[in-house]
Amino acid sequence: MTSKGIVWVTGCRGFLGGEMVERFERAGYNVVGTDVELSVCEPERLEAFAEEVQPSIVVNCAGIRREATTLSTRVKAYEVNALGARNVALAANTVGATIVQVSSDDVYSAKLDEPVNEFDSPEPDTPYGKSKRAGEMMVRNTTNDHIIVRSSWLYHASSGRMKAILDAAREGGTIEVRTDQFAAPTSVSLYADLIFRALDKGATGTFHIVSRGRASRYDFAAKILEYAGYDPEKVLIPVEDPRTAENIVLESMLLDIAGIELPTWEDDLKAYMEEQGLLA
């Protein structure tokens, strides 16, 4: 297979970074990954690396995670999620590469009355969301050659919540799952596929890449178990907490306008579990 070009993935040892490396390689790209050994907080080293590698695409998966971002750690979050994003964009600029900036539904308020699309103004209400919003703005102000991707509840089978749910079922255990947090679960397969399509078409701008519909974390977990052949009621313990209830449902308005038909979250999940050999 002839290589489609060189892709540089930052944060390559994180869950999403690792998936991006694997999926870009499968799609025929020559992939170079970096992680903590090349901090996104070191702009001169980033630019030197870009000059050495000469990527045509830079995928910035580096970041401080939501659960690690609090009021007391927000300085580091802004350093990595905001200034780090700017530094990666500057490095991409030095070699004329497109930057794919990984963002989040957390750039919106956690308690929305209705779904939001790319034309709605973000108003984050958490330190993490504010740092990711700042990163988006930094990238936009640094280069026009960018794709900013917001998604929600990205999942894959080898780690995270999905693995924990299936592990509990296999071991005959139980797991607590929230009934008062809502979003649109999205597989890493759908996410990567639509990024590839955007890159192939030379698209730029900000996109919501999410499956269609709305689910609670309980709904999502129950459907995982159902597809895997387990009884959800024997595994899941429903819990709620009004203090941390959430409703952030993204709509992919720009993809709809482009005529790209997105699957429902149930169909996306079923297709992903079939891909991974997890269907009963």
From TrEMBL:
This protein's GO CC annotations: cytosol
GO MF term (any one): dTDP-4-dehydrorhamnose reductase activity
ATP-binding is among the record's keywords: no
Stored InterPro entries: dTDP_dehydrorham_reduct, NAD(P)-bd_dom_sf, RmlD-like-bd
Ranges where the RmlD-like substrate binding domain occurs: 7-275
Top-level taxonomic group: Bacteria
Pfam families: RmlD_sub_bind
Alphabetically ordered keywords of this record: NADP, Oxidoreductase
Protein family (similarity comment): Belongs to the dTDP-4-dehydrorhamnose reductase family.
Protein name: dTDP-4-dehydrorhamnose reductase
Lineage, top ranks: Bacteria, Bacillati, Actinomycetota, Coriobacteriia, Eggerthellales
